[in-house]
Automatic annotation (TrEMBL):
GO terms for biological process: carbohydrate metabolic process. Keywords: Hydrolase, Signal. Coiled coil: none annotated. The keyword Hydrolase applies. Residues 22-295 form the GH16 domain. This is Family 16 glycosyl hydrolase. Gene3D superfamilies: 2.60.120.200. It comes from Pseudomassariella vexata. PROSITE patterns: GH16_2 (PS51762).
Length: 306
């Protein structure tokens, strides 16, 4: 194989990796990461913060959800694979403790302006393990005022774009808002919809596209929508939620998060037990991302959105 052919193949290979973020019809991508860093490296620090420990400084213990893992920045728990995929791995040590990883965007200004429509989207592959009880991969957002405060949830709002627990072949989309307990979003549960299975193949072990949309293009109505592989499975209208809570959540900027938790309130509830994981829950499950992107479309005159 001659040198020109080698260079050509390398160029094609590099192009294939960097083509992970697709064009989204009708939208302009305004921010993205396709995880093309070197094998073993952390995600780009210009885009992401890596959370560590079992809580934010001064925040609720166990990240406020009862999950039992410790988040680290260890490459065993989080790394880019050199082929355009970010891998988050949950590991159980010999003493029975779990480690995993959680990242959040540096940017805190993801917002659909009045008259615009915003989408947040990722291509994700959920962990596929022999005994998955206690696994809790998620892709979600928090309202920007949470950063540095850590005690003002759920009033700042939360959009759960994709949550999956216990390896069940279904995914949840949820809105959190208002006050806790109870309030306009029925906290701590939130207002949820779910998709049973993913189009074409099971959710675990396969890449699927998970999308969240904020639609503010109409002056008379606003909507939140959740999709898997462009198939809508849940919608909420502004009329479904108390106006003040909707405004605090939908009309304010957010930041994005992705993590693989172990145990906690959601997998416990779905499993019907006081505590997960189980003693035989499989170590080494991997949560993967090919890309994360945000895009927008504006009605009429273009507006600055992310």
């Amino acid at each position: 194989m001659g040198l020109p052919k080698v260079i050509s193949l390398l160029a094609l290979f590099s192009s294939a990796i960097r083509a992970a973020v697709p064009s989204i019809e009708g939208f302009t991508i305004t921010w993205s990461d396709d995880f093309t860093g070197a094998a073993g490296s952390l995600p780009d620090s210009a885009n992401w913060l890596v959370d560590t420990g079992t809580s934010y400084p001064g925040g609720a213990s166990n990240w406020g959800t009862g999950e039992i893992q410790t988040f680290t920045s260890n490459p065993e728990n989080i790394q880019q694979d050199g082929n355009g995929v970010l891998k988050i791995t949950a590991i159980k040590d010999e003493a029975g403790g779990w480690t995993s990883a959680r990242i959040e965007t540096q940017r805190t200004d993801f917002l659909a302006q009045p008259g615009s429509k915003m989408r947040i989207q990722a291509s994700l592959n959920l962990p596929q393990v022999e005994q998955p009880i206690g696994y809790w991969p998620a892709f979600w957002t928090l309202g920007a005022p949470f950063r540095g405060n850590y005690l003002n949830w759920p009033s700042i709002g939360e959009f759960d774009i994709m949550e999956n627990v216990n390896g069940i072949d279904e995914v949840f989309g949820t809105l959190h808002c208002g006050s806790n307990p109870g309030g306009p979003c029925n906290e701590t549960t939130g207002i949820s919809g779910k998709q049973k299975g993913c189009p074409g193949s099971i959710c675990q072990g396969n890449f699927h596209t998970y999308t969240f949309e904020v639609d503010r293009t109409q002056t008379s109505a606003e909507f939140l929508r959740w999709y898997v592989d462009d198939v809508q499975f849940f919608e909420l209208a502004a009329s479904d939620v108390e106006a003040e809570a909707w405004n605090q959540t939908v009309h304010e900027p957010h930041f994005l998060l992705m993590n693989l938790a172990i145990g906690g309130s959601f997998p416990n509830k779905e499993f019907g037990a006081d505590a997960t994981p189980l003693e035989d829950t499989t170590s080494g499950g991997v949560y993967q991302a090919e890309y994360v992107a945000s895009c927008c479309v504006a009605r009429g005159k273009a507006r600055e959105t992310v």
